């Protein structure tokens, strides 16, 4: 499973590097030569959506998202475990709803034929990859929940706990 997560992180990291390079090169070309890269804005924002959802998938599985551990750190280990399970269930519920909403958006975009301005690239494939990231997040959160319930969760300690 770690290889899958590492692959997801590499994919998201590669997309982030591409989006960063695209933005930098487009801005440089626009200011130096008054020639922007066609559809660089649309490509950047759609690719950012994809990498955000794939990043959510990886961080949700590993439990590396931003947390507030004020109450968690004051609880005994059994209550911590229960709170972790509850939080994962809540995240799974919310991500499942978001994945369903994104699926409807993909269908709407496909039916509308919406495209980018300059190159007339269809938008729905970007939305489809974004939706795939949300589905990956649901699957990985479900895997995390199963591991937590079985008692083999990845992160059971606070982020800065040096035990």
Protein architecture, described:
The chain has 163 residues and is an all-alpha fold. It is built from five helices and no strands. It has helices at residues 2-33, 40-62, 70-74, 77-112, 124-150. The protein is elongated, with a radius of gyration of 19 Å. The relative contact order is 0.15.
What is the residue-averaged pLDDT? 88
What form results from the Cα inertia axes?
elongated
Share in β-strands: under 5%
**Cα-based radius of gyration, to the nearest Å:** 19 Å
What is the H/E string? HHHHH
Number of strands: 0
Q: Helical amount among residues, as a percent range?
A: over 70%
Task: Count every helix, treating DSSP H or I runs of 4 or more residues as helices.
Answer: 5
Short key terms for the protein model shown above:
5 helices, mainly alpha, 163 residues, elongated
Compact description:
75% of the residues lie in helices and 0% in strands. The protein has 163 residues and is mainly α.
Secondary structure layout:
Elements: H1 2-33, H2 40-62, H3 70-74, H4 77-112, H5 124-150
Helix pairs in contact: 1-2, 2-5, 4-5
